[in-house]
Structure formats: C-alpha cells, structure tokens
Write a structure and sequence with these properties.
By secondary structure, this protein is mostly helical. Helices cover about 65% and strands about 0% of the residues. It is built from six helices and no strands. Helix 4 crosses helix 5 and helix 4 packs across helix 6.
Length: about 100
C-alpha cells in the first residue's frame, strides 16, 4: 500500500502541463476510479504506471515513486518499455483531443 500519495504535488504537476487526472489515468491505462484510489492511498501504483507518470509529467520515475509514497520498484529504462509507454501516452492524448473536439 501507498504510504503517502502527495495529491497536491501531482495536481500541481498536471496543472503546469495543462493536463487533467483523466489524461493521467488514460495515459497509464488506468480507470479514473483506480487513479482516485491511488490519490486516496488505497491503491499502489505499478512499476509501469510509475514509468508512464514520469514520462507524462517530465520527472524521473524515482521522483514519482517518492511523491506517491510507494515502495514500487522503479521501472527499467529498456527501449521496449519506453516505446510502449510512449505509445500509450500518444493514444491517450489522441483520445482526449478527439473528446475535446466533439
């Protein structure tokens, strides 16, 4: 379980980038309900989610793990994982763009 998820820090990082919790959840392949549980310290982030959050927020995976207050191992920087994370981000952002245009 998470020790202390710093919701204010995550929201500030999102706001700086003009993003929402919905986008963060979608980029990580999470439901908004799952993200809400993480924000309430009722669900720990997976290593993959840590990696996606780091990419989206432009910080290191170690910083995400620290701000999420978790013991999740920091994901490796292997090219396959990085490409998969970037593809998820692009798909989530495209979906959000389509939703905003409609």
């Amino acid at each position: 379980m998470a020790l202390f998820f710093d919701a204010a820090w995550f929201d500030a990082q999102l706001a700086q980038r003009g993003l929402t919790r919905r986008v963060l959840a979608a980029a990580a392949g999470m439901s908004e309900a799952d993200l809400a549980l993480a924000y309430k310290d009722q669900r720990e982030l997976s290593a993959d989610e840590v990696g996606v959050f780091a990419e989206l927020l432009g910080v290191s995976p170690a910083e995400i793990a620290r701000q999420a207050g978790i013991s999740t191992p920091i994901p490796g920087a292997g090219p396959e994982a990085r490409i998969a994370a970037l593809e998820r981000r692009v798909a989530a952002l495209e979906a959000e763009l389509a939703r905003l245009k409609s």
